[in-house]
Amino acid sequence: MKKVEAIIRTTKFDDVKEALYDAGIEFFSFWDVRGVGQAREERVYRGVVYDTSSIERTKLSIIVRDKNVEKTVNAILESAKTGEIGDGKIFILPIEESYRIRTGEKGDESLYLKGKED
Description:
118 residues; Alpha-Beta Plaits; elongated; 19% helix; four-stranded antiparallel sheet
């Protein structure tokens, strides 16, 4: 099992969500986050200078079977890309074990409903 973490533009969240659903990834967690990246600039609006180096993003956390990592990453890459600086990052981390609290199932079985094996 792997944990796929992605930090994406908030404006691309709906596109990424649909792409993940289309790829068969039906459960993930997400948070609104702020970060600092390479794009550092100030903008002036009505005479007031605003620092726009702190960027609003959405962070996704998705636990998938090893066989689903590539299609998960590809769904995010294809749907989150604008070609501009600040599109985000994807990180892959190993997961040692998982448990379904309700039933006590562990491993891959804890990630999906019975009969829905993909």
